[in-house]
């Protein structure tokens, strides 16, 4: 399915711009620079579907991508978070937009929360996990950039991340370790996304 038709649909800077709630959605979240754009491109087999290296200020919108012909899944690329230099009102706007989307979206089947494998779960990641737990949106934790660390360090991050995930009510069991660079974990992530969307 992901190898077939994938199209950018639209950007929604506010809830009134959301596409009609007719297709199962999978949302992707992660701190800026976690590798979210690269991962969306890897999952969809596209070179530049999602724009990489988002800059603060340009990112306060939800970007939707349609997957499949006939249309089967809609991806929602949520704005990155955790810019060190982000102004307070921008953080506030991000929180409102994301919270409203998460709480009001019945077609949202799962969120994918990206964690940089070199850093593990950070306080900004806990904030989005808190929001997802609060909105009762089930989410899958995914490690990114695993080509950048040694196997022993990856094992430690996997263990710590799983331990934290187990304590979270809406976290889906398991963890997918990926690299957009080598393609590791990408088929597993595709399968998990489709299973969640079609369930
Ligand atoms: P975003 O801000 O979350 O969308 O992150 P990007 O996809 O723009 O990636 C941020 C930086 O990390 C870019 O320089 C990417 O080339 C790099 N990057 C992303 N994914 C990987 C990966 O799996 N492996 C490596 N080595 N670098 C990656």
CATH topology: Rossmann fold
Number of domains: 1
- Into which percent range does the helicity of residues fall? 25-40%
SSE order, one letter for each helix or strand: EEHEEHEHEHEH
The CATH superfamily title: P-loop containing nucleotide triphosphate hydrolases
- What's the tally of helices? 5
Q: What is the structure about, briefly put?
A:
With 199 residues, the chain is an alpha/beta fold. It has a single domain (6-198), classed as P-loop containing nucleotide triphosphate hydrolases (Rossmann fold, 3-Layer(aba) Sandwich).
Characterise the protein shown here.
It is a single chain. The protein has 199 residues and is of the alpha/beta class. The protein has one domain (6-198): P-loop containing nucleotide triphosphate hydrolases (Rossmann fold). The chain is built from 5 helices and 7 strands; from the N terminus they run ββαββαβαβαβα. It has helices at residues 36-43, 88-104, 123-135, 151-166, 186-198, and strands spanning 6-12, 25-30, 62-67, 73-77, 108-116, 139-144, 171-177. The protein has a 7-stranded mixed sheet, with helices on both faces. The two termini are 15 Å apart. 37% of the residues are buried. The mean pLDDT is 92. The structure holds guanosine-5'-diphosphate. Guanosine-5'-diphosphate binds at residues 30, 32-38, 52-54, 80, 144-145, 147-148, 179-181.
Q: Can you give keywords for this protein?
A:
single chain, 199 residues, alpha/beta, Rossmann fold, 7-stranded mixed β-sheet, globular, binds guanosine-5'-diphosphate
Furnish the topology, listing elements before pairings.
Elements: E1 6-12, E2 25-30, H1 36-43, E3 62-67, E4 73-77, H2 88-104, E5 108-116, H3 123-135, E6 139-144, H4 151-166, E7 171-177, H5 186-198
This protein binds guanosine-5'-diphosphate.
